[in-house]
Amino acid sequence: MLASPLERRIEKLERINAALMAHVERNMDQQGGAYALFQTAITLEGRVRTRTEELTGLMHRLERSNAALAAAKEEAETANRSKTRFLAAASHDLLQPLNAARLSVSALADLPLGPEAAIIANQVERGLQTIEDLIKTLLDISKLDAGIVRPEVKPFRLHELFATIAGSFKPFAARKGLRLRVRGPDLVVMSDAALLQRILQNLVSNAIRYTESGGVLLAARRQGDGCRIEVVDSGRGIGAGERDLVFEEFYRGGAGRGMPEEPGLGLGLSIVRRLAQALDHPLILASRTGHGTRVSLGLALGSAEAEPPARAVPVATRLTGARILLVENDQATADALKRLLQNWDAQVSAYRDLAEVAAGMAGGSVAPDLLILDYHLDDGACGLDVAAYLRNLTKAPLPVIVTTADYAPEIERRVAGIGAELMHKPVKPAQLRSLLTYMLT
């Protein structure tokens, strides 16, 4: 049955209405998606702003923290420098009476004593030596920590250094029934000879101290383009838990556990580690309990000609009749040193400063054969001025020994500049006597 025109019109209107509704729904869906995207964008913007504010705050806190760390570092470095200056001044003041005490004990030992008195004198001497070693080592550690020690790396022959160390420690090893052997080719190495000698002395001394039987080997060998120095002992070895501790201050492995030798100060290996770091010599420790210990250092080989060895000082003899002029502002030290020199048959004139020396010379004192001068005198005066005055007065290059408890490099340069010899306090009587004989001869 055919639809009437009205029905067809109604059907058409329904199709148009459906199409319009579909269009409206599509528009509403699009508008809803855009709104959702807009809402999402707003949310993300808020999150980004929050994160940015958090990051900015974190950066500000980091900047404040870095500033605080920099301030703390500067404060620590300032405190370290102050500690070094304090220790240097304190050590000078401590070494002065110690110097007088050692000279007095040495003078006492030269007198005829009974067996018991001689034993007591030796005990006092050992005690003073321990105090001196402790003061000097603490000062050395302070200088190393403050970066004051500046290595002077030069080429030199390792064989000469090994011979010096072997000569020093073979009697010590022999007293314990140990063998001290030295082995290796005659190599030229790059290092600071004085600092390297200090390292090896501490290592060899430590090895002998903690070895009951067998021996100690000081060896060198080529390793590629460099050289490796080793100190090997046949001692009890170091347990795994102690290997990092042995390089700490005042740690004494084995002390009090049946060691026949007196324990050391516990500072030798601490000095070794600091000196090795200052010289940039890699330091390696290997050990097995019950089988001994090996400590090795890595060095670069030198290609330039090494410096000639220092002249050996001859064995001392008596100083009969030698005229020695002594300038020392510390009365106890002056008295002790004068007594010691007189025990060696020298003629000694002692003064406190340049004014007293000038008065003595004006009064008819005989020109001296040799001068022993304290570097630091009263009121900021310097013993080198006395040397200049007397050399100008006598028109002769008088030999001079300068004594001081100050280890400043500038003093060493000034003393060397006038051709004098430098001895650090406390003065060791045997070394002084040997040096006096050498210079007077």
From TrEMBL:
<dbReference type="Pfam" id="PF00512">
    <property type="entry name" value="HisKA"/>
</dbReference>
<dbReference type="GO" id="GO:0000155">
    <property type="term" value="F:phosphorelay sensor kinase activity"/>
</dbReference>
<dbReference type="InterPro" id="IPR036890">
    <property type="entry name" value="HATPase_C_sf"/>
</dbReference>
<dbReference type="InterPro" id="IPR004358">
    <property type="entry name" value="Sig_transdc_His_kin-like_C"/>
</dbReference>
<protein>
    <recommendedName>
        <fullName>histidine kinase</fullName>
        <ecNumber>2.7.13.3</ecNumber>
    </recommendedName>
</protein>
<keyword id="KW-0597">Phosphoprotein</keyword>
<feature type="modified residue" description="4-aspartylphosphate">
    <location>
        <position position="374"/>
    </location>
</feature>
<dbReference type="Pfam" id="PF02518">
    <property type="entry name" value="HATPase_c"/>
</dbReference>
<feature type="domain" description="Response regulatory">
    <location>
        <begin position="323"/>
        <end position="440"/>
    </location>
</feature>
<dbReference type="Pfam" id="PF00072">
    <property type="entry name" value="Response_reg"/>
</dbReference>
<dbReference type="InterPro" id="IPR036097">
    <property type="entry name" value="HisK_dim/P_sf"/>
</dbReference>
<feature type="coiled-coil region">
    <location>
        <begin position="55"/>
        <end position="82"/>
    </location>
</feature>
<keyword id="KW-0418">Kinase</keyword>
<dbReference type="InterPro" id="IPR011006">
    <property type="entry name" value="CheY-like_superfamily"/>
</dbReference>
<feature type="domain" description="Histidine kinase">
    <location>
        <begin position="89"/>
        <end position="303"/>
    </location>
</feature>
<dbReference type="InterPro" id="IPR003594">
    <property type="entry name" value="HATPase_dom"/>
</dbReference>
<dbReference type="InterPro" id="IPR001789">
    <property type="entry name" value="Sig_transdc_resp-reg_receiver"/>
</dbReference>
<dbReference type="InterPro" id="IPR003661">
    <property type="entry name" value="HisK_dim/P_dom"/>
</dbReference>
<keyword id="KW-0808">Transferase</keyword>
<dbReference type="GO" id="GO:0005886">
    <property type="term" value="C:plasma membrane"/>
</dbReference>
<dbReference type="GO" id="GO:0009927">
    <property type="term" value="F:histidine phosphotransfer kinase activity"/>
</dbReference>
<keyword id="KW-0175">Coiled coil</keyword>
<dbReference type="InterPro" id="IPR005467">
    <property type="entry name" value="His_kinase_dom"/>
</dbReference>
